[in-house]
């Protein structure tokens, strides 16, 4: 990722972030192409990052900024992958990580966070309340705020995926790129990256961006079509794709603007399509993905059916993450605490160095 540092908002000087980030492969997936009848289909496999998701890019740039400014604690709220990336990135960089999650966060991901040394606070009111509490803690305690969409460095880092795709396609852009959407910064970042390639004279047009959400939690799909979302479309617990199950997307309006500018669209996919995509990616592409990470493939058939993508076009699917499990000993007592306010957070951290 640091190859593009001249286009990133960090000054000159050595990069202090210790883990390799980015440079993930663009896979030609011949078996998947034959199965789907899509001869120019590609997969951008972000599962090759250190904690197995695209969240590592944003974490790396935010921590690099914090290291240069001497900040000792980083915080974020997350449905899972951003928290895991933050915990491991902070551990590698010698920072303390304080993570806020909803009480229904997957136990496997909680175990990964705590194993990397993070302090984790579960918020009963859900993900949106966890975001609010994490952001308030960053302001009050002077912590580094890594929250998705709130810190602009998260988008700056993720735009490097667009640069890599351009390079890996022989300095060409695809006709369309299909992207899972939760809070929205991944899609917005791609739009920014593609726009910068155009403004630099390295491309003449942007790809169409197709955003994918789960049918059970599709606030932006509904907004795209101007149809109010009811409880059945705003149920994060109803989907296996927890990584994109966000009722209140952090930068939803920016997502819709980016999709509109690109001539793209938004698509909702069923639970069966998400699960089938996981299996198909493994069987036909050799790529392990969690349901949220496989959502782009889950939405491809619908995008083709609706005329959003032609089978003969150069199309890139962004696979954002895979399932990972914690090994070794279980986390120590007190690493995960349920809280409702900052006073409880402060008390719980009072004994930390």
- For this entry, what is the oligomeric state of its chains? single chain
Q: Return residue spans where pLDDT drops below 50 for at least 5 consecutive residues.
A: none
As a percent range, the share of strand residues is 5-15%
Count of beta strands: 11
Could you please describe the fold and organization of this structure?
- The protein has helices at 30-36, 55-69, 81-93, 107-115, 127-141, 152-158, 160-168, 185-199, 219-225, 252-262, 271-285, 295-305, 342-348, and strands at residues 26-27, 41-45, 73-77, 96-102, 119-123, 144-145, 176-180, 208-214, 265-269, 315-319, 336-338.
- The longest helix has 15 residues, at 55-69.
- The strands form 2 sheets. The chain has a 6-stranded mixed beta sheet with strand order 1-2-10-7-8-9, sandwiched between helices. A 5-stranded parallel beta sheet has the order 6-3-4-5-11, sandwiched between helices.
- The chain has 353 residues and is α/β, with parallel strands linked by helices.
- The radius of gyration is 19 Å and the shape is globular.
- It is built from 13 helices and 11 strands.
What is the secondary structure topology, with strand pairs?
Elements: E1 26-27, H1 30-36, E2 41-45, H2 55-69, E3 73-77, H3 81-93, E4 96-102, H4 107-115, E5 119-123, H5 127-141, E6 144-145, H6 152-158, H7 160-168, E7 176-180, H8 185-199, E8 208-214, H9 219-225, H10 252-262, E9 265-269, H11 271-285, H12 295-305, E10 315-319, E11 336-338, H13 342-348
Parallel strand pairs: 2-10, 3-4, 3-6, 4-5, 5-11, 7-8, 7-10, 8-9
Antiparallel strand pairs: 1-2
Helix pairs in contact: 1-11, 2-3, 2-6, 3-4, 6-8, 7-8, 8-10, 11-12
């Amino acid at each position: 990722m640091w190859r593009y540092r001249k286009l990133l908002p960090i000054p000159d000087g050595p990069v202090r972030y210790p883990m390799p980030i980015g440079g993930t492969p663009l896979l030609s997936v011949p078996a998947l192409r034959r199965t789907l009848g899509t001869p120019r289909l590609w997969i951008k496999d972000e599962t090759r990052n250190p904690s197995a998701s695209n969240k590592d890019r944003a974490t790396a740039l935010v921590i690099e900024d914090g290291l240069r400014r001497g900040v000792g604690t980083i915080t974020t709220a997350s449905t899972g992958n951003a928290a895991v990336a933050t915990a491991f990135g902070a551990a590698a960089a010698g920072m303390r990580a304080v993570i806020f999650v909803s009480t229904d966060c997957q136990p496997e991901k909680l175990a990964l966070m705590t194993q990397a040394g993070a302090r984790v606070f579960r918020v009963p009111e859900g993900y949106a309340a966890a975001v609010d509490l994490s952001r308030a803690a960053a302001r009050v305690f002077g912590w580094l705020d890594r929250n998705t969409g709130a810190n602009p460095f998260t988008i700056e880092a993720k735009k490097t995926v667009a640069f890599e795709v351009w390079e890996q396609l022989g300095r060409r852009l695809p006709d369309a790129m299909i992207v899972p959407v939760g809070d929205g910064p991944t899609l917005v970042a791609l739009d920014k990256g593609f726009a910068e390639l155009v403004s630099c004279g390295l491309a003449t047009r942007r790809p169409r961006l197709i955003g994918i959400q789960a049918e059970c939690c599709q606030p932006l799909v509904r907004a795209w079509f101007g149809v109010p979302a009811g409880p059945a479309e705003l149920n994060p617990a109803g989907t296996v794709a927890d990584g994109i199950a966000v009722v209140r997307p952090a930068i939803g309006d920016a997502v819709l603007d980016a999709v509109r500018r690109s001539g793209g669209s938004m698509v909702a996919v069923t639970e069966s399509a998400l699960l089938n995509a996981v299996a198909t990616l493994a069987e036909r592409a050799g790529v392990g993905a969690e349901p949220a990470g496989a959502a782009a493939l889950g939405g491809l058939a619908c995008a083709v059916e609706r005329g959003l993508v032609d089978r003969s076009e150069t199309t890139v699917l962004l696979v954002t993450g895979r399932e990972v499990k914690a090994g070794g000993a279980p986390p120590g007592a007190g690493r995960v605490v349920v809280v409702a306010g900052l006073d409880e957070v402060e008390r719980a951290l009072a004994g930390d160095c």
